[in-house]
Each structure stands twice: as C-alpha cells, then as structure tokens.
C-alpha cells in the first residue's frame, strides 16, 4: 500500500502521525511511505531522518492525497484538505466528528473511509488510541490550571500546594477516566486538595484504591457538582461519552456563584466541551473569561509537547496502521479487535451512532458495510 504522512496544519500543532522508526516498520512490511516535507520538524525529526528510514519526501499535501491509498494525520483534516480527499481513500486520524458538523458533512461528501483514532476500542473496553493523548492532556491540564491561577495570568493568585501553615488550592476534576486520573494525580502530587467526580461506581472504587489521601473520589450528582464548583479554585472537565457530544455540566448560571479568578480547563472541548460557556481556543490564545472565571479550552493540548506526544501517540497507532496497510480496511476490521468501532464513515455513510445522533443524520451499522 502507499501510505501518506501529512504535515499537521492546525494552529500550533507540532505532532506528526508517524516517526522515522514507524516508517522503517512500514517498509519492512512491504509498503511505500510518502512523507510531506517538514512533517516531522516540530517533533524533532528531519526530512533526512525519514529518508534514512526509507520514506520519500513529497512537496505538497495534494501529491500525497493523489498518490496514497491511506493518508494519516494527527488532527482532523482542515478545510483546505477537504477537496483533496479521494473516494475510497482511508483517512486515519483523530476526527472528533460529534463536535463538528461542518467537518462531518465535508467528509461525507468525500466518500472516503474515515477511521477515527478516538473511537477504536481495546480489549479492556478502553480507548487505546485516545489513552496516550489523554494521559498527556490530563497531566498538562493541571500544569495549565496551576499557571492560570497565578495573578499575573489573570488568576486569583493561589499556589496549588499552599505552604506551611497555609491551605492548598481546591481542585475539582469532573470525570475520573484517563484524563481525570492523570490530572488528579498531578494536582495531588503538587499538594492540592483534590476531588474527582465520576458516575461509574466501579471506576470510583478503583480510584479509591489507587489515589493518594489528598484526592477524594466521589459519585457525581448535579447538587454535589454545584456545591463543589462554588468552592473550587480550579475545575478540570474530563468527561467522555465515547464518540458523542459532551454533556454540559457547568452552566453559565453556575459561573456566577464561582470564585472570580478561578480557572476552568475544559479538556473535553474536542467533543464539544463540558461547560456551557466553553469554546475552542488555541495554544497561542488559550484563555478567555466569562463571569470573571478563566476558561482554558485548547482542543489539541498534546500538540504543545510534541516530543513527548508524538512518541506516545505513534507507539499506539502504528500497530493498527500496519494492519490496515497489510490487509486493507475491511479485512483488518474483521481480524483486529475493536478496529471496526473506529470506522466512523464509509463512502458517505455514517457508521458511528454517536456521530449520526449528534446531527440527526442517518446511521448505518458498520456490519452492514464491512
Ligand atoms: N483537549 C485535548 O487536547 C484532549 C482532549 N481529550 C478529551 O478528554 C475527554 C476525556 O477523555 P478520557 O479521559 O480519555 O475518557 P475516559 O473514557 O477515560 O473517561 C471519561 C470518564 O468520564 C466519566 N463520565 C461520563 N459522563 C460523566 C458525567 N456526566 N459526570 C461525571 N463523569 C462522567 C466516565 O464514567 C469516564 O470515567 C475526551 O473528550 C477526550 O477526547 C483527550 C486528549 C486530548
Ligand atoms: C485527542 C486529541 O484530540 C488530541 O490529542 O489532539
Ligand atoms: Mg474542528
């Protein structure tokens, strides 16, 4: 198969979807890899590194889309790429369709095969291609929350860990999955007073076992959430209903009773955000304020630490990409557990229910088109 490695063009996105080591593996499996010029520089890989690994360097994305059977990205295709995608071409990347109707309708028109990293399922009912980036985003969420709590950044001026004789910050984490657990561990490690909310009792039981004493896992309810939000110095939104639009858990009304200068980090923004007042922001302009509460809503947080993120992401994606290249998408989906759940769109048909439901569009079960 001919595989295309595209350069990321989303604002401040420095990851790359395949490392030179990944190219070597693809070559060993008999495939040709075309890498867009400078695709790896943001992650520390030069064109020469890719050439040494056996790739061909290509000048433009158009040539890659024209020549490849499967194209890979990190982030969703951007508008300038929509018309370059070809019928039956496999596009393997993060899509987060349920948060973006324009992207959904544009991809339907391409008649391509859209396989979304974020909905591939693992054998433990996990999300193996989302998990590494959720680890990064969760850890970063705490760094960003602590930073924007500083007065010079517009925050209320509280140190997460406090100091001797002075109380630490109160950090509320909503959602105790991968993002939430990593965020809570970092905040607890800094010495903050952490509460982590989830609805899933089994998950809460697990968190109760592994979390340090300054982190309380609690069962969420609207009343408890309202009470804790009023008292919090920082809130990290980390909920997920896989592939679907995020529920709005903190409303505009609730902001009025929160502390001025407190910080909301909405990690779930890539699925539409879990705070009513969230809207996507970028690394260059990451925050805005509503009712005196700072909102940080960067939809590609791991893009800020590409050296770590590219390695973590490609460790997880490469084995699936190799299966897709070796077998074609239909056979790979039959052979590899959980891969067919990643197929969100086939030749204009939506094959992921959460995406169809988000926009009231027709849903075609994947087994009907496999
Ligand atoms: N902004 C960014 O750069 C990034 C965003 N993400 C996003 O972060 C979000 C979380 O991802 P993961 O932690 O990997 O998901 P996960 O599936 O591991 O965890 C989600 C947790 O939320 C809980 N939950 C669902 N509804 C809830 C509710 N109403 N109240 C309380 N808890 C609720 C679930 O029980 C689950 O434990 C996703 O939207 C993901 O796409 C992930 C990586 C990077
Ligand atoms: C998960 C995701 O959207 C990201 O890593 O950018
Ligand atoms: Mg988008």
TrEMBL record:
Q: What CDD domains does the database record attribute to this sequence? A: L-AlaDH (cd05305)
What Pfam families does this protein's entry cite? AlaDh_PNT_C, AlaDh_PNT_N
Kindly state which keywords UniProt assigns to this record, in alphabetical order.
NAD, Nucleotide-binding, Oxidoreductase
InterPro entries, from UniProt? Ala_DH, Ala_DH/PNT_CS2, AlaDH/PNT_N, AlaDH/PNT_NAD(H)-bd, NAD(P)-bd_dom_sf
- Which BP terms in the Gene Ontology apply to this protein? L-alanine catabolic process
- The Alanine dehydrogenase/pyridine nucleotide transhydrogenase N-terminal domain sits at 4-137
Q: Which domain of life is it from?
A: Bacteria
Active site, per annotation: 96 (proton donor/acceptor), 270 (proton donor/acceptor)
Which GO molecular function entries does the Swiss-Prot or TrEMBL record give? alanine dehydrogenase activity; nucleotide binding
Which pathway is this protein assigned to?
Organosulfur degradation; alkanesulfonate degradation
The UniProt family comment states: Belongs to the AlaDH/PNT family.
Q: What is this protein called?
A: Alanine dehydrogenase
* Species this chain originates from: Desulfohalobium retbaense (strain ATCC 49708 / DSM 5692 / JCM 16813 / HR100)
């Amino acid at each position: 198969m001919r595989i295309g490695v595209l350069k990321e063009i989303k604002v401040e996105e420095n990851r790359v979807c395949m490392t030179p080591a990944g190219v070597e593996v693809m070559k060993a499996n008999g495939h040709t890899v075309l890498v867009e010029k400078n695709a790896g520089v943001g992650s520390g890989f030069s064109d020469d590194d890719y050439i040494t690994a056996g790739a061909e360097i290509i000048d433009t994305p158009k040539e890659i889309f024209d020549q490849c059977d499967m194209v890979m990205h990190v982030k969703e295709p951007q508008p300038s790429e929509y018309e370059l995608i070809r019928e039956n071409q496999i596009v393997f990347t993060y899509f987060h369709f349920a948060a973006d109707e324009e992207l959904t309708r544009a991809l339907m028109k391409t008649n391509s095969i859209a396989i979304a990293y974020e909905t591939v399922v693992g054998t433990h009912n996990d999300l193996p291609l989302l998990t590494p980036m959720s680890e990064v985003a969760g850890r970063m969420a705490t760094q960003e929350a602590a930073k924007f709590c500083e007065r010079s950044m517009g925050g209320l001026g509280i140190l997460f860990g406090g100091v001797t004789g002075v109380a630490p910050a109160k950090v509320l984490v909503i959602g105790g999955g991968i993002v939430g657990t990593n965020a809570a561990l970092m905040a607890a490690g800094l010495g903050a007073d952490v509460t982590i909310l989830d609805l899933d009792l089994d998950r809460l039981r697990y968190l109760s076992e592994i979390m340090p004493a300054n982190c309380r896992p609690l069962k969420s309810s609207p009343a408890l959430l309202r009470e804790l939000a009023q008292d919090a110095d920082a809130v990290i939104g980390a909920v997920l209903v896989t592939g679907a639009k995020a529920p709005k858990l903190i409303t505009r009304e609730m902001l009025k009773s929160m502390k001025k200068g407190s910080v909301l980090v909405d990690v779930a923004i890539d699925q539409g955000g879990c705070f009513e007042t969230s809207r996507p922001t970028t690394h260059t302009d990451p925050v805005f304020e509503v009712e005196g509460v700072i909102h940080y809503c960067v939809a590609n947080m791991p893009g800020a630490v590409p050296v770590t993120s590219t390695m973590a992401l490609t460790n997880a994606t490469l084995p699936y990409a190799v299966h897709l290249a070796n077998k074609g998408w239909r056979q790979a989906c039959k052979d590899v557990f959980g891969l067919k759940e990643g197929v969100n769109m086939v030749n204009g048909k939506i094959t992921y229910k959460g995406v169809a439901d988000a926009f009231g569009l027709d849903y075609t079960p994947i087994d009907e088109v496999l």
